[in-house]
Amino acid sequence: MQLVLLGGNFEAEDIARRLLTGGHEIYLDSQDTSLLKRLGYIGRVARMETQEALGRLSEPRVVWSTELSGRQLRELAEHLPAGTILVNSRAQYFEDNIQITDRLAEHGGHYIDVGAMIDDHRLALFVGGDQQVFQDVEPLLTAIAGKGSYYHCGPSGAGHFLRCMQQKYEVQVHSALASIISEIRRSPFNEEINLEAFLIFGHLFCKKQPLPDSVWNFLITHAHAAVCEMQQQGETVA
């Protein structure tokens, strides 16, 4: 696919590298010549203003923004041709996304919001927007995150909203795990308990709930630390 990519930040470069590696063609609307040079070693990329590039895009016409504010996106929506799909991967309040969607709809355009979370260099994409439009941009999502690493959350705004909910969930899980580990360490059973085995067994066989990688890393790190601490205490006693 072809698309216009707006932005010269780290996120724009990361997205561009993944898309170019996947064989997609990019028109980059950025003044960063060094970025253009770096990307040129990977695939087909050219620097071009958005309006000019739109005339060269094949259907579906996609403009992907990584750094425009809500106000800037609303202004951009006024000048996009009918049928254009505007994708926004910058964190945005979900009500702003709804307003941008309405503004685009007035001009025959479409809006997709992408809430991105990164964990150990792996991406998870929370995507909001019309089902058909989502399917139109799915080849881009596959190139960026890989199959199974993106989730269509619902209408426009749902992507960024559920990304925030996922972050809230992980924060609460971290807090709960820290509290549990602290209580176990203060208990009279601390030296006899295999904390790592307890935590993993509880999540795998009792609740059977998949955990985000960041939570698993937190769990395992603290569990190993507790095991090492118990071993050191045992050696000291011996």
TrEMBL record:
InterPro entries: 6PGDH_NADP-bd, NAD(P)-bd_dom_sf
Occurrences of domain 6-phosphogluconate dehydrogenase NADP-binding (ranges): 69-147
Xref: SUPFAM superfamilies: NAD(P)-binding Rossmann-fold domains
GO molecular function, one term: NADP binding
Protein name, UniProt field: 6-phosphogluconate dehydrogenase NAD-binding protein
Organism: Desulfocurvibacter africanus subsp. africanus str. Walvis Bay
